[in-house]
Write a structure and sequence with these properties.
4-stranded antiparallel sheet; Cdc20/Fizzy; anaphase-promoting complex binding; alpha+beta; Methylamine Dehydrogenase, Chain H; Cell division cycle protein 20-like protein p55CDC; cell division
Length: about 500
């Protein structure tokens, strides 16, 4: 019998359906208790009443927190906005109306009438409605622009895209035929004068194209059919043209009168590069020599520079006339002093001679706004653009273009560097200076590009290639407003100089 009594006691302890006397009060019981308490206290103010269902003293609200308003409806624990059909119709109307072309009646109607009609019909002004409202109208892409979506979805400028970028056309502004053009990497067959005349050498003849009038002039032709033109270079004023030939001579022509002034013979091989420095004309030959000619004197040959062992295919005087840069087929880049700064009779001592390039150096360009900066480009075995500081003799930066470099030109309007390429890209590339980040690629030539030259206003670059075409790329036009402000600044500084004098 004792065993049965013990089992009954255990079963009574383990039963779960009995009420828990000392446990936590359920939430609904607490709410009922609090509501009953408040009701009783409201009925009989001034009397203390104890209607607690248990002996535990649980506070009616959490300390430090305000009482939370619970929705009266079941399931109302979140706010769901209610939009009627009229609001959705107005939103649809606003979306469709912005893409419609403006009508004459709408433009003529005054804003007061529109507001009054809107209030009378809808009960409020439609212009104040902001449901799915899009601000601004889609922009129209420029003619010939490829990515219209980029124009449409980039209306709001972010801090990173706040700076405006100009549009550069991927097609040339004009294409000129150049039949019988000699496809030789080492020759310089194109030059643009300050009087807007483009000179091009086609085999044994020189033609001039007036970029203003569009007229073509046949300037000269070699006496022997086997001879050919190797290089061209205009004077700073644009009245005279120097011509280097395959018979080792340098000719000087008066363009206005279409008359040859003189023929200067001093080289022993073809003259593939020319460059002017006021009245001094420098010429580079296949023999590796560089000759200085003073065109005012009867004995024109005044100095000889002998720093290259192979053909001199690149020759450029700096804008300030202090240095002459030369590039050769021996992969050297040399910088020579001017005649007035120590280039004496034994002027074979260069200021700098760099041998970092692994290919022929024909492409040379001086920076117009930094007179001590020189850019050079290597041939097929090198393919690198190098920027040099002439004062320190160091290489500032270097870039592998993955293509043969035949010509370099600085574009001052946007402070950019333009390069012409042969194998394997056969194109023209615009680089931002000094970061040398790619701005644009100008494709269209079907053979290697041989030379580049810049127009007098620096807005257009001309490229000539082995496909016997000359292409004019109008990629550097200046904003008219900026151009006018710049002209005003130049006039004001000139007037100040006049007053000082």
């Amino acid at each position: 019998m004792a065993n049965f009594g013990f089992e009954n006691d255990i079963h009574s302890i383990l039963k779960l359906d009995l009420p828990v006397a000392n446990g936590t009060i359920l939430r609904w019981k607490r709410k009922t208790s609090s509501s009953n308490t408040s009701a009783v206290s409201g009925l009989s103010p001034g009397k203390s009443t104890n209607v607690s269902l248990s002996s535990s003293k649980t506070p009616s609200k959490t300390p430090g927190k305000t009482k939370r308003q619970t929705p009266c409806k079941m399931g109302g624990d979140r706010f769901i906005p209610v939009r009627n059909n009229r609001q959705m119709e107005i939103a649809s109307f606003l979306l469709t109306r912005e893409n419609d072309p403006p009508e004459a009646n709408n433009t003529a109607m005054s804003s007061e009438k529109q507001r009054a009609w809107s209030v009378a019909l809808n009960g409020f002004n439609i212009e104040d409605a902001k449901i799915l409202h899009l601000g601004g109208k889609p922009l129209n892409a420029p003619q010939g622009y490829q990515n219209n979506l980029k124009v449409l979805y980039n209306q709001v400028t972010t801090p990173a895209s706040g700076k405006k970028t100009r549009y550069i056309s991927s097609t040339p502004d004009r294409i000129l035929d150049a039949p019988e053009l000699k496809n030789d990497f080492y020759l310089n067959l194109l030059d643009w004068s300050s009087r807007n005349a483009l000179a091009v050498a086609l085999h044994n003849s020189v033609y001039l194209w007036d970029a203003t009038q569009g007229e073509i002039t046949h300037l000269m032709k070699m006496e022997h059919d086997d001879d050919y033109i190797c290089s061209l270079s205009w004077t700073k004023e644009g009245s005279y043209l120097a011509i280097g030939t395959s018979d080792s001579k340098v000719q000087l022509w008066d363009v206005d009168n279409q008359k040859r002034l003189r023929s200067m013979a001093s080289h022993t091989a073809r003259v593939g590069s020319l460059s002017w420095n006021e009245h001094v004309l420098s010429s580079g030959s296949r023999s590796g020599e560089i000759h200085h000619h003073d065109v005012r004197m009867a004995n024109h040959h005044i100095f000889t520079l002998t720093g290259h062992s192979q053909e001199v295919c690149g020759l450029k005087w700096s804008p300030d006339g202090r240095y002459l840069a030369s590039g050769g087929n021996d992969n050297l880049v040399s910088v020579w002093p001017s005649v007035s700064e120590g280039g004496g009779r034994n002027g074979s001592q260069s200021v700098h001679s760099w041998s970092e390039h692994q290919g022929a150096v024909k492409a040379l360009a001086w920076c117009p706004w930094q007179s001590n900066v020189l850019a050079s480009g290597g041939g097929t075995s090198d393919r690198r653009i190098r920027i040099w500081n002439v004062n320190s003799g160091s290489c500032i930066s270097s870039l592998d273009t993955q293509s043969q470099i035949s010509s370099l030109v600085f574009a001052p309007n946007y402070k950019e560097l333009v390069s012409a390429h042969g194998y394997a890209h056969n194109n023209v590339v615009i680089w931002k200076y000094p970061s040398l980040t790619r701005v644009a690629e100008l494709n269209g030539h079907e053979d290697r590009v041989l030379s580049l030259t810049l127009s007098p206003d620096c807005s257009t670059v001309a490229s000539v290639a082995g496909d016997e075409t000359i292409r004019l790329w109008k990629s550097f036009e200046v904003d008219p407003l900026k151009k006018k402000s710049k002209e005003r600044l130049v006039k004001s500084t000139s007037s100040i100089h006049q007053l000082i004098r």
